[in-house]
């Protein structure tokens, strides 16, 4: 097992990784910006190194500073968490070129999946269902219009190098496509340094379902069930649950098999997620939709990984460290089976109505407790949520034997969670957990819009 680890991230995920590493007896090093010096993850690590000012480009994305911290503290490995440099293939290669262990997938897999057009073409070759779309980037707006003519409106205009729900727009007709194409291309060039644009069929009513995969040290790829991620604002997730209430046993089998094929197609190792669109169509006797398409592969640990951990009884960070160390998993890959239900709520420093960020000093922070209640937080009372980073403050994860019981426990936990100072979206979750559509399990990615 790895003996020392630098966590190249911040907040709740850095704290989460450090917690598992310490349980395993691994020495931990935190890197932090000047703005984050007082956060819990900094003091909970065995060592901490400031790598720059608040601007993430000068700190958490500062490759030279992070590598210097790794060398000065003598660590063996680097875990990137999610966001920042986690899906940067060049960073992964640089880490390994410096004699360090990269706790993540091979750089070639990151590269292959980082471009949405290349990824969808690879998946199609591997027999993974993909939505109707352009096999090559639309070089200009006329090419985009021609592609849409063959696909049929409405279409999704997507930045090929985008991620996290960014760089996407819907066009219902040619006039809208001409406008959105230029917007998406400009955004993609500015944000990702790559203006390549993909045109793909847009499905007005759809669910977002993903599969957790783990590429083992012996070369096998296994799937640890699916997560429902359809409660979103601005194409970004707010709630995740596992198992999905929309997935029947037969559909689950197809989902997991497709995800394993996806991982095998790129020689995947370590933790990753295959994201799919689940389209309501003909329904079988179980009431499950029967058509799904590959959306993208996230070549890292996901924010929502705790719901899989609770349903499958594994520690995914530990499994990541074991794979990176060349060790077998703690579980039997041939005997994976879900137990119960888990729901994750992302507690953000944002307005619960319009979801606009609202940073500030945390005056009150009281986390809920009780059976089946887990809180992965990045802050405590007295900390400041700054405007420099993502608004996520904590994840409230609830588990129970059934979905109905999980929802009941979540209602109580949300009522118990006290946050004062920054804006907070807890009132939204109180509303969602009483929403008939959500409670029924028959909802889609439009649920938040309908609630507003």
UniProtKB/TrEMBL annotation:
Gene3D superfamilies registered for this protein in UniProt = ATP-grasp fold, B domain
SUPFAM superfamilies per the UniProt record, alphabetical? Glutathione synthetase ATP-binding domain-like, PreATP-grasp domain, Rudiment single hybrid motif
Which Pfam families has this protein been placed in?
Biotin_carb_C, Biotin_carb_N, CPSase_L_D2
Q: Where does the record place the ATP-grasp domain?
A: 120-325
Biotin carboxylation domain: from which residue to which, for each copy? 1-452
UniProtKB keywords: ATP-binding, Biotin, Ligase, Nucleotide-binding
Specify the superkingdom.
Answer: Bacteria
What's its EC? 6.3.4.14
**PANTHER family found in the cross-reference section:** CARBOXYLASE:PYRUVATE/ACETYL-COA/PROPIONYL-COA CARBOXYLASE (PTHR18866), METHYLCROTONOYL-COA CARBOXYLASE SUBUNIT ALPHA, MITOCHONDRIAL-RELATED (PTHR18866:SF33)
Q: What is this protein called?
A: biotin carboxylase
Q: Which organism is it from?
A: Micromonospora echinofusca
């Amino acid at each position: 097992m790895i003996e020392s680890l630098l966590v190249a991230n911040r907040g709740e995920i850095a704290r989460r990784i450090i917690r598992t590493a310490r349980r395993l007896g691994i020495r931990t090093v935190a890197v932090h910006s000047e703005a984050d010096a007082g956060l819990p993850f900094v003091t909970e690590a065995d060592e901490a190194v400031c790598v720059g000012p608040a601007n993430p480009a000068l700190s958490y994305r500062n490759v030279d500073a992070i590598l210097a911290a790794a060398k000065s503290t003598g660590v063996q490995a680097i875990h990137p968490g999610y966001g920042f440099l986690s899906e940067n293939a060049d960073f992964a290669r640089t880490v390994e070129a410096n004699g360090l262990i990269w706790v993540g997938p091979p750089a070639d897999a990151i590269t292959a999946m980082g471009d949405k057009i290349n990824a969808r073409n690879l998946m199609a070759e591997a027999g993974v269902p993909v939505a109707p779309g352009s096999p090559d980037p639309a070089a200009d707006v006329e090419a985009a219009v021609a592609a849409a003519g063959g696909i049929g409106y409405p279409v999704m205009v997507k930045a090929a190098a985008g991620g996290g729900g960014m760089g996407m727009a819907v066009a219902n007709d040619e006039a809208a496509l001409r406008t959105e194409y230029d917007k998406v291309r400009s955004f993609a060039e500015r944000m990702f340094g790559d203006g390549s644009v993909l045109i793909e069929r847009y499905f007005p009513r759809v669910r977002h379902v993903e599969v957790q995969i783990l590429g083992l040290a012996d070369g096998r790829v296994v799937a640890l069930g699916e997560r429902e991620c359809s409660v979103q604002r601005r194409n970004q997730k707010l709630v995740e649950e596992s198992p999905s209430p929309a997935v029947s046993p037969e559909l689950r089998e197809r989902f997991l098999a497709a995800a394993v094929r996806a991982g095998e197609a790129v020689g995947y190792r370590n933790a990753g997620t295959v994201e799919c669109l689940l389209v309501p169509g003909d329904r079988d006797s179980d009431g499950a939709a029967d058509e799904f398409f590959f959306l993208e592969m996230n070549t890292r640990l996901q924010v929502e990984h705790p719901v899989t951990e609770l349903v499958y009884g594994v520690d995914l960070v530990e499994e990541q460290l074991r794979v990176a160390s060349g060790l077998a998993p703690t579980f039997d890959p041939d005997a994976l089976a879900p137990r119960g239900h888990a729901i994750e709520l992302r507690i953000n420093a944002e307005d619960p109505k319009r979801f606009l960020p609202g940073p500030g000093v945390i005056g009150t922070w009281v986390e809920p407790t009780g059976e089946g209640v887990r809180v992965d937080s990045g802050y405590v009372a007295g900390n400041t949520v700054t405007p420099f980073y993502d608004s996520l403050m904590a994840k409230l994860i609830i588990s129970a034997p059934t979905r109905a019981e999980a929802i009941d426990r979540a209602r109580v936990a949300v009522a118990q969670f006290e946050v004062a100072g920054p804006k907070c979206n807890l009132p939204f979750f109180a509303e969602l957990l009483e929403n008939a559509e959500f409670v029924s399990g028959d909802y889609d990615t439009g649920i938040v819009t309908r609630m507003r």
